[in-house]
Write a structure and sequence with these properties.
ArsR-like_HTH, Helicase, Ruva Protein, domain 3, 3 domains, HTH arsR-type domain-containing protein, 52% helix, WH_DNA-bd_sf, Ptyr_pPase_sf, alpha/beta, 3-stranded antiparallel beta sheet, 4-stranded parallel beta sheet, Rossmann fold
Length: 304
């Protein structure tokens, strides 16, 4: 690659969307990606992603790999060093395998007297397996610890319910949009009055950026939340299970209240439409919280 071509390639890499596309390609398990998958992750239309891919292809930054009716894109070997220079060298930020033994030991301390070390280790191993099965995700060790702790908390609650503190579980398909909006808003409004969990029937890798932006706009933090698989203990611990477009994926247990909120999926929608979905969810969450506060009045808690 001559100097002029190299300069053009660096200019192409300066576009933030193209840099993000290259980041996703580089971070993929096999170092390649499909335009459709890229568009879904970036919440852009396929023509928009194709436009950026074409620019990268024209400058020799990526290469095409036809596979039947599909076309994969990977970073061209001659451009890998330049891509690393722009995105940052992967070797500088290693991602070692999670120390499951350490995680299990820490959680065994946290749940001492509640669960045996063997039970804790089982949930840690199973949580790691479930998260890793969804594909490459960031912060896998800390997510394994958080997901394991949440499952163990739910299991403990199912066995010994906390009087006066209702629990709500929000479930959607990817646990990256509607359920995260609802959960964040309810946590924000209810504080410690309600325990809130989320799950997905087919969880995505990350919460969508449009969801984070829509929440931030109204001053609602997402915190360290991330998409999590739907598990039995989360349903068993819940007093109210709110489903949003996940069909019959949620198991039914007696004694729970099940609500199905018919809401548009925010995936791929313009931000103005995401705002509308957020506001509709906000209205429903406020109504639900009012019902929960009425049902769990001080008088009722005292009688329990």
């Amino acid at each position: 690659m001559d100097a002029a071509t190299a300069d053009r390639a660096l200019t192409v890499l300066g576009d933030p969307t193209r840099a993000r596309i290259l980041q996703l390609i580089r971070d993929a398990d096999d170092g390649r990606a499909l335009v459709g998958r890229l568009a879904e992750t970036l919440e852009l239309t396929q023509p928009t992603v194709s436009h950026h891919i074409r620019a990268l292809l024209d400058q020799g930054v990526v290469q095409r790999e036809p596979d039947g009716r599909r076309v994969w894109y990977s970073i061209a070997p001659d451009s890998s060093e330049r891509v690393d220079a722009v995105l940052g060298d992967r070797a500088a930020t290693p991602h070692p395998a999670p120390d499951l033994e350490r995680i299990s030991g820490d959680l065994a301390t946290r749940f001492h007297g509640v669960f045996s070390a063997e039970t804790v280790a089982h949930y840690v191993d199973d949580s790691y397996r479930l998260l890793a099965a969804e594909g490459p995700v960031s912060r896998l060790a800390s997510r394994t610890a958080s997901f394991s702790a949440s499952r163990l908390d739910a299991l403990a609650r199912a066995r010994h319910p906390v009087i006066g503190t209702p629990e709500v579980l929000f479930v959607c398909v990817e646990n990256a949009g509607r359920s995260q909006l609802a959960a964040a808003i309810l946590r924000h409004l209810a504080g410690e009055r309600v325990t809130v969990r989320t799950a997905g029937s087919a969880p995505a890798g990350e919460v969508r950026q449009s969801i984070v932006a829509a929440l931030d706009e109204i001053g609602v933090p997402l915190g360290g939340e991330f998409p999590k698989p739907l598990t039995d203990e989360a349903v068993k611990a819940a007093d109210v299970v709110v489903t949003m477009g996940c069909g019959d994926a949620c198991p039914i247990y007696p004694g729970r209240r099940y609500l199905d909120w018919d809401l548009d999926d925010p995936v791929g929608r313009p931000f103005e439409e995401v705002r509308g979905i957020r506001d509709e969810i906000d209205t429903r969450v406020r109504a639900l919280l009012e019902e929960l506060d009425t049902e769990r009045s001080p008088e009722q808690v005292a009688k329990a």
